[in-house]
Amino acid sequence: MTEKDVSVDVTLSGGGIVLINGSVPESYPVDIGYGTRVSLEAVPALGYQFSNWSGDVTGSENPADVRILNDKVVTAHFSPHAGEFTSDDEVLSIIIPEGTTALDEEGDLLTSLEFIVDETPPPPPPEANIIGLPYNLEPGGATFAPPIIIIWSYDPADIPSGVAEEDLFLAYYDEDSGEWAVLSSEVDPVTSTITASVGHFTAFAIIGIAAPPTPAAFTTSSLSVAPVEVNIGEPVNISVLVTNTGEEAGSCTLSIKINGVIEGAGKITLAGGASQTVTFTTSRGDEADTYSVDVDGLLGSFTVKKAPPWTALSKVNWVIFGPIVAVVVFLAILLPIRLRRRDFFD
């Protein structure tokens, strides 16, 4: 038998490839020089593991070192296997389900993958932030059926203010649209991880979008009516605390009702989260009564009384007797002066 008469033919069972002396032949069978020793190495595809050889080479040794003295037909057997791969920094893990078909961009079986940190990622969407470091998963364009699972760890300290942890999500960069595309993600705040399924390799990142500020919303509290009892015509101060519970600045109109009738209204503008005390002043100059107060649903009251009789009498007495008292005082001062002048001239 001459060298030209010797060949090795390899068939595959399951997902994987066979290297002959470190490379994949373009086709089978492969002509081998008579008596040559060759290395047959079974490389499982992602989602598979090598089981054994059968045919003219048997066993599970891998690679198998074989001396070719005659034509050989060999079958490499691969069995489905769930594989897990983790980046060197242990931030990113990929789980490949059992029996996954993993193909590279050319449609060949995928046997390896790489995690590459992307130091200059595409910019995130407006109002969004990339949390931590993005990764390029290589080889780019690789596809998976069924999809593989990505588990991504993050540092809560990297989450900027205004971004809710539970709203984080994984996204991939779509080269065709030039935009980040959202992946359906599950956030676990206890383990600080995000999980998603992906069907292909490209650039991936954790993205958080700051929630828009809540619009202005107003509440009133702490109604104060003082004094609660006055005479006719005396002022009553009615105060409430107005608070903007939203994050954006805004304005509201506050009105006061006395006995169900709007007596006053005013516009107040507050920054987000700010509070201010607003005071109305009213009086009743016509009728003694108890009056109800309503400011934005806060209820109170005050009582107006007639002035006591002695107060009115004292005013009348002062009008009548005031001039008399003034004359008496004048005479009391003038008389001693005149008497001293007479003594001086006598």
Total separate domains: 3
CATH class term of the largest domain:
Mainly Beta
Q: Tell how many strands the DSSP assignment holds.
A: 26
Number of helices: 1
The CATH topology of the largest domain is what? Chondroitinase Ac, Chain A, domain 3
Tell me, briefly, the overall form. Answer: rod-shaped
Which ranges are low-confidence, i.e. pLDDT below 50, for 5 or more consecutive residues? 312-316, 318-322, 324-335, 337-346
Given helix and strand content, the structural type is mainly beta
Radius of gyration: 47 Å
Residue-averaged pLDDT: 86
Instruction: Please outline the major beta sheet.
Output: 6 strands, antiparallel
CATH architecture of the largest domain: Sandwich
The fraction of residues assigned to DSSP E strands is: over 45%
Helix and strand run: EEEEEEEEEEEEEEEEEEEEEEEEEEH
Our measurement of the CA-to-CA distance between the termini, rounded to an integer number of angstroms, reads 179 Å
